[in-house]
Amino acid sequence: MGVLAGAEPFGHTGSAETGFLLCHGFTGTPAxxxxxxxxxxxxxxxxxxxxxxxxxxxxPDLNRTTWEDWYGAVREALLALLATCRTVFVGGLxxxxxxxxxxxxxxxxxxxxxxxxxxxxxRLKWDTRLLPVLGRIVPSVPAIANDIxxxxxxxxAYPRTPVRAAASLAKLWAVVRADLAKVTQPVLLLxxxxxxxxxxxxxxxxxxxxxxxxxxxxxxxxxxxxxxxxNDAEVIFTRSVEFAKAHxxxxxxxx
Length: 255
Hints:
Keywords: Hydrolase. The chain is α/β, with parallel strands linked by helices.
């Protein structure tokens, strides 16, 4: 089966000065990031949003991938942006935020700043510890997708949550949490006051764990988890453009 309509990766070629990599969430697709990407493109940025391996087709495909595969895809996209743009920012939703943090940990000041929307770094529910065992018995559980407050808005995501892939995501959380102190870039963290997927402790762990001295926290009062498609989407879009413009390298003056 091919890629679902609307789930395709996308990009916009704008300024060579500033690039913005966007990372979508677990079981989701670039569709959840498209309006954000369009807004960044309208502001003149070069934008890339890859489709993560195992996503955007059928949920069993995701069980055949691991966090290293997802990270490899965003890492490759970041390297391509770094080769063409003078200043690069990275933003992500949910697991996309987790991947963004991992990129920040690895690439340091080569990334000018990161924007996190409801990032995940843990899950407190008791069943999380059972994922490795559960994955050998049960291929999937009910979906986590489509947590949106805005009426009529639907997330393009899998109808089931693949358990083996979820167990790999839990491994990624542990890796990212262990290295949070390596994050030194400016951080814009936006999180929903009500989120039925990612618990509030996630944003607190990130805020407490990073070493960044330039950190801005924004509470989204009228959105659930998929905030990039929810009532506060414009807040995310506007604040991320302001953030990038404030932290972008100044164009070099010509003689």
